[in-house]
Design a protein that fits this description.
Blueprint: E1 7-8, H1 11-21, H2 30-43, E2 50-55, E3 65-70, E4 79-83, H3 89-98, E5 109-110, H4 118-127, E6 131-142, H5 145-149, E7 159-163, H6 169-174, H7 184-193, E8 196-201, E9 207-213, E10 219-224, H8 233-247, E11 253-257, H9 261-270, E12 273-274, E13 279-285
Parallel strand pairs: 4-5
Antiparallel strand pairs: 1-2, 2-3, 3-4, 5-13, 6-11, 6-12, 6-13, 7-8, 8-9, 9-10
Helix pairs in contact: 1-2, 8-9
């Protein structure tokens, strides 16, 4: 019988784990850092989704962590966020092999894996008799909170910046390209519990562009309606959400598909710093059992 080395992380240890352990590898740890911070905030506010956060209690300093985000829609995969401090990859491999907390049969999505851990995750999926598939390679862009808080921008006379509401969710979700792995409940929680802003027409109140601080605590769901592109609304809403995040003490960060040159250029133009290595998204699938 395998011995479970992971324990659920109590809120009392969260601050030390994030500030004193993870931050030694800043900003490489930024995804796990804000995933944890956001999880505790959402759990205290009765989010539709549920979080489970696990760590090695007798060896906190190595920074080994697994976070699992489960959504109420059963047809959607659990999201798994993993991390360990550099140099602890072998211990992480052993932990990933032995833990019973990951429901492999639910075909989880491993979100933004540190590249040095990618092969470990892929090998483990194969050892579980399943198949790994690269969903995307994400480029991490980030900005220090104090820099973000000092950003300034001008709003054109024909639009205004306003809060998103739950009434906008159906429309936003209909245009979201990642609805294959992220359910509508993610937007529901984000709009109610995190930052969600839109660019609205002063003429008729139409929602033209939007962005949010999503379930992992980073800037997400950036969309400009097709008929309103190339008017600067994408940059405007990124600036607006980035500034609010900075004012709230959050270092804004975004995970952008490496093939999305438009968004990569936009975030660079706003002043985001590019991380040096990609962060892969890997989905678990059933093995290919088709014959020749």
């Amino acid at each position: 019988m395998r011995s479970e080395v992971l324990e659920e992380m109590p809120e009392a240890i969260m601050e030390y784990f994030c500030e004193q352990v993870l931050k030694r590898d800043w900003p490489n740890c930024i995804h796990a850092y804000y995933f944890i911070k956001n999880a505790f905030q959402w759990m205290s506010k009765n989010s539709a989704s549920s979080y489970k956060l696990y760590y090695i209690s007798n060896d906190v300093e190595n920074g080994t962590f697994i976070g699992i985000l489960s959504r109420p829609e059963e047809e959607y995969p659990d999201v798994v966020v993993t991390y360990t401090c550099p140099g602890n990859e072998e211990q992480f491999r052993r932990m990933l092999y032995s833990t019973e907390y990951i429901n492999w049969q639910k075909k989880p999505l491993f979100q933004a894996i540190p590249f040095r851990m990618k092969a470990i995750v892929e090998t483990m999926i194969e050892e579980k008799g399943l198949k790994s598939k690269l969903y995307s390679n994400a480029v991490l862009k980030w900005m220090p909170a104090d820099v973000a808080a000092r950003l300034d921008y001008e709003i054109p006379d024909d639009v205004f910046i306003g809060q998103l509401s739950v009434d906008h969710i159906d429309f936003i979700y209909s245009l979201w390209t990642h609805s294959d792995v992220y359910p509508k409940s993610d937007l529901w929680d984000t709009v109610r519990l995190n930052i969600g802003l839109g660019v609205f027409s002063r003429h008729n109140g139409e929602l033209l562009a939007w962005a949010m601080c999503g379930s992992y605590g980073g800037l997400s769901t950036l969309i400009v309606q097709p008929d309103y592109r190339r008017r600067g609304f994408g940059k405007l809403i990124v600036l607006a959400v980035t500034k609010v995040m900075g004012e709230n003490g959050v270092s804004p960060h975004a995970l952008i598909n490496e093939k999305n040159n438009v968004s990569l250029g936009l975030f660079k133009n706003v002043g985001y710093i590019k991380h040096s290595t990609p962060l892969p998204y890997v989905v678990v699938e059933d093995p290919d059992t088709s014959g020749p």
